[in-house]
From TrEMBL:
One of its GO terms (molecular function) is RNA binding. Its EC number is 3.5.4.36. Keywords: Hydrolase, Metal-binding, mRNA processing, Zinc. It is an enzyme of class 3 (hydrolase). Its cofactor is Zn(2+). The gene is APOBEC2. It comes from Balaenoptera musculus. This is mRNA(cytosine(6666)) deaminase. One of its GO terms (biological process) is mRNA processing. Belongs to the cytidine and deoxycytidylate deaminase family. Residues 64-169 form the CMP/dCMP-type deaminase domain. Homotetramer.
Length: 224
């Protein structure tokens, strides 16, 4: 079973990279906790290593992980067989917008009917019900789009609304998978900044395989 983090750690205020904020009453820290813009989407090619290690960790109790990191690979194939590929990541800063919806609004606002699209997402957690609905609507109206969604964790998987949303994703043709340890390694190698002097080898955290099996079983039960 996936391990829960200590409640004492869960109660501590954290910054977006998961670091505990020292002296949260300090004006500088209050600015990070309170004075936030209502909407912002961060995009880029590679995310900081400390963000990955905290946000993608496949724990059951995801305290402090109140945003979604979405790494994507887009392959667009023409009828002649030529493939154009692009990759990057999205990070939703606040609750006003989610990375899944932002992907369709900013990265792929339109689809060329002459191309076939294979899109792969590596997300820190599975979509909420609203984002799942947006994905379903996009898949239903875009017949030349195939989406593979690999999630590090399941978001609020015990809620009936979330379970129904995941089943609708499957029915719409979205392939849903839980990230295996080798998927985390792929993200580390292809989407994470490598600092000078830092080991480039992926170092799995404790219980990564056990937690994968836990979530994989839950997803299988939901999608029956």
């Amino acid at each position: 079973m996936a391990q829960k983090e200590e409640t004492a750690q869960a109660a501590a205020p954290t910054s977006q990279d998961g670091e505990d904020l020292e002296n949260p009453e300090d004006p500088k820290n209050l600015k990070e906790l309170v004075e936030l813009p209502p909407f912002e989407i961060v995009t880029g090619e590679r995310l900081p290593a400390n963000f990955f290690k905290f946000q993608f960790r496949n724990v059951e109790y995801s305290s402090g992980r109140n945003k979604t990191f979405l790494c994507y690979v887009v392959e667009a194939q023409s009828k002649g067989g030529q493939v154009q590929a692009s990759r990057g990541y999205l990070e939703d800063e606040h609750a006003a917008a989610h990375a899944e919806e932002a992907f369709f609004n900013t990265i792929m606002p339109a689809f060329d009917p002459a191309l076939c699209y294979l899109v792969t997402w590596y997300v820190s957690s599975s979509p909420c019900a609203a984002c799942a609905d947006r994905i379903v609507r996009t898949l239903n109206k875009t017949k030349n789009l195939r989406l593979l969604l690999l999630a590090g964790r399941l978001f609020m998987w015990e809620e009936p609304e979330i379970q129904a949303a995941l089943r609708k994703l499957k029915e719409a043709g979205c392939k849903l998978r839980i990230m295996k340890p080798q998927d985390f390694e792929y993200v580390w190698q292809n989407f994470v900044e490598q600092e000078e002097g830092e080991s480039k080898a992926f170092e799995p955290w404790e219980d990564i395989q056990e937690n994968f099996l836990y979530y994989d079983e839950k997803l299988a039960d939901i999608l029956k």
